[in-house]
Every structure is written in C-alpha cells, then in structure tokens.
Amino acid sequence: MDNLRDVVIIGSGCAGHTAALYTARANLKPLVLEGHEPGGQLSLTTLVENFPGFPEGIQGPELIENMRKQASRFGAEYKLGHLSSADLSQRPFKLHISHEVVHARTLIIASGASARWLGLPHEQQLIGHGVSSCATCDGFFFSGKEIVVVGGGDSAMEEAIFLTRFATKVTIIHRREQFRASKIMLERARQNEKIAFLTDTAVDDVYDVGKKEVTGLKLRNLKTGKVWDFPTSALFLGIGHIPNAKMFEGQLDTDPDGYLKTTHNVHTRVAGVYACGDVQDRRYRQAITAAGTGCMAALEVEKFLEEHGADAI
C-alpha cells in the first residue's frame, strides 16, 4: 500500500513534538502534520518560565523549535498541511491531508485547542504583551498590577480567583448582568475582596500597540451606549477554548464542549488511535502536561504495534 505509515501525529505543539520524539526514537519514523497553527499555543507565547529545565525561562517559539529539532534529529518527518478528513472505520486509517491520502497503522491526535478571542482590532498584536488566555502561564508577570478578566462562566471566575494571587485588583467584565458561572464559583469570586465586577459591558478595543504593552481598554455600556477608557495592565480572556477535533466528529467520543474523551489517559474508543494534549485535556492545559501525555501516547503506540504487528495493517 502506498504512503503507509506506522504512526501519524496530528499537531505540532508540546504534545505532538513529544510524541514525535518518542516514536522517532523507537524507529517508527513518525509523520507529523503541523496543522493550521504550527507550534500550537506556545507559538503565541513570549516568555515561558514554568517549563522545567530553563531556570531563566525560554521564549515559547524557541521552546517549540527546540522540540521540533530534537524530534527531527531522530527521524521524525514534518509536513505542512491540514487534515481535512479521516476514516477510522477501516485499517489502516485513511487520512486526507491537503490533496494527499496517507494511510496510518496508528494515529496520535495532538491537535490542541484554540483559545476563544474577542476579535478586537488590536487584540492579536498584543498577545504575549498583556493579552493572554492563560492565567496560570502569565499571571505572575502582573504582580502588583490591576488587571481585567473577560467572561461570565466558570473559566472566568477560576482565572480571576487565581490572578488575585498576583494582582492588586482584578475586574471581571461581562456582557450581561447574569452570569453563566456555577453558583459556588460566582460566590467565591464575589467574596474575594480583590475582585470587582463590571456587567452589561463590552470590550471594544485594547491599548496600546505603539507601546507594545496593554495600558487600557475601550469599554462600552450595552444598556446606555456610554463609551469610556479603562486603565489596566493586562487583559485575560476567560471565555474558554475550542478543541480542534471537528474532523473526528461521529467517529470518536467527545464531551459536550467537543474535547476528545479518553480512557487510561490517552486511549480513544478506536484501538490504535490516541489523543493527547489540549484536545483532550480541559483541566490543566499546560505545556508540561501536554508533553507528558504526548509521551504516554507514543509509548502506547509502540506497545500496540509490538502486540499487533502485521495485523495493524
């Protein structure tokens, strides 16, 4: 069979690169599909200070590039392209990648999750410079500052509560008067003396691209139409993530928000198909946990191919 691979890895973030490294060292010659966001969310991050082994921290894109080089050194092959569809009902699995068909004995899905953004005029230009979708990753950089969290669900409350460890004040901005957050999470936020609320309010833009840092927001009251500037040192998005798993709808189990369901850490319901990183992890969403599950998936692939051999065709 043409273009038959022992393992194909979908995604090139921490989980995908780690899976590539381990499967390459096992001489499985993995094909890594880089996807529509090569490098994953770390490619949008500036300084990473919580990945072990870098006492002075490391730039997110540099960390990703180092992982890629390490996996390539052992024989991992990287390919730019997008997985348009996959047939997991037959063996080997049939993958449509751009204008090519690739067959795979095993598949590791490490396609990650994309942060939901507000779509502000200058939002993307300030990502990593005060605009963030990860409080755990970036909260420390705003110690002693006043910051903002946007959102009305549990994610926003969790982010805001966590950020009070560093910030002097956290303002939660929400478009509505009522919150989607669970009663217990909302109550915890309301009882925290460092947290303030601005309801019926939309964020129309973020400043200041010229200074390459967040200095404030342009806000609008949705009831009165009043527009004003609100000073802040950071804008954290607490409006959730979108797992990149749509191409597997109907073939793999997902939770109500689209995250792939796994058992034994990385097993999907299809034998030989494994999921790792943020596409299946809605709880931790850290570079180090993604790398850990990437390792698990690679070891499971190696075990599967050893046990099934030619039957995996």
Describe the structure.
The chain has 313 residues and is of the alpha/beta class. The chain has 6 helices and 19 strands. It has helices at 14-25, 60-73, 135-138, 154-163, 183-191, 287-308, and strands spanning 4-10, 31-33, 47-48, 58-59, 77-79, 83-87, 93-97, 100-109, 113-115, 131-132, 146-150, 169-173, 195-198, 201-207, 216-221, 227-231, 235-237, 241-243, 273-275. The model has no long low-confidence stretch (mean pLDDT 92).
Average pLDDT reading: 92
H/E element sequence: EHEEEHEEEEEEHEHEHEEEEEEEH
Q: Quick one: overall form?
A: elongated
Q: Tell me roughly what share of residues is in helical segments.
A: 10-25%
Question: What is the structure about, briefly put?
Answer:
The protein is an alpha/beta fold and 313 residues long. Helix content is 23%, strand content 27%.
Which descriptors apply to this entry?
313 residues; alpha/beta; seven-stranded mixed beta sheet; 19 strands
Q: What's the topology here?
A:
Layout: E1 4-10, H1 14-25, E2 31-33, E3 47-48, E4 58-59, H2 60-73, E5 77-79, E6 83-87, E7 93-97, E8 100-109, E9 113-115, E10 131-132, H3 135-138, E11 146-150, H4 154-163, E12 169-173, H5 183-191, E13 195-198, E14 201-207, E15 216-221, E16 227-231, E17 235-237, E18 241-243, E19 273-275, H6 287-308
Parallel strand pairs: 1-2, 1-8, 2-5, 8-19, 10-17, 11-12, 11-17, 12-13
Antiparallel strand pairs: 3-4, 6-7, 7-8, 9-18, 14-15, 15-16
Helix pairs in contact: 1-2, 1-6, 4-5
